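Weekly structure sync, notes
Attendees: PL (lead), two postdocs, one rotation student
Agenda item 3: pending single-chain targets
PL asked that the sequence for the first pending target be pasted directly into the notes so everyone works from the same version. It is reproduced below exactly as submitted, 93 residues in total.
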Amino acid sequence: MSPEAENKQKKPLFAVKWVKGGKYVLTGSADGEIIQWNAQIYDRKAHSVHNKSVQSICVTNYEKFTISGDREGQVAYCDSKINRVQIIQAHKE
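Predicted structure, written out during the meeting:
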């Protein structure tokens, strides 16, 4: 099987953010994962961050932290390696 076939995203994506000067792209998927794609070698690393679909992704200045929100109103605060540091319930609607 080709690398392209193995790295194909099977769930819908709802959020996209380029980082590290275009070297990586972060995507938020319907299954609650943030996927870090290496655009130079077409490689991906999935990070399980949310229980519901990721609707938004934001990266802080200097790309030290990633903040994401899901469809249930939870906001996740992650470090630069997309390890979840904290999750809060921002709203119920």
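Discussion points:
- The chain is about 5% helix and 50% strand.
- The mean pLDDT is 89.
Action: rotation student to compare against the earlier draft before next sync.
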